[in-house]
Sequence to fold (59 residues):
Amino acid sequence: MRIRKSPSPAVEPSKSRSTADLRREYELIDRERTGGSNSVGAVADQNDIARELERRGEL
Fold:
């Protein structure tokens, strides 16, 4: 298992995006994962979005 020491590239753009946009992106990735697509990049991006939403107090 690889532990990332730096955030994925999705973090910086997520800080300038609206909360509603982040929620939509999170839900889109969730639907893709439910459908069987579990790419490592998508999982990492979803985790980063969740952390940003949590930081904003929105999750």
Q: What stands out?
A: The mean pLDDT is 80. The chain has three helices and no strands.
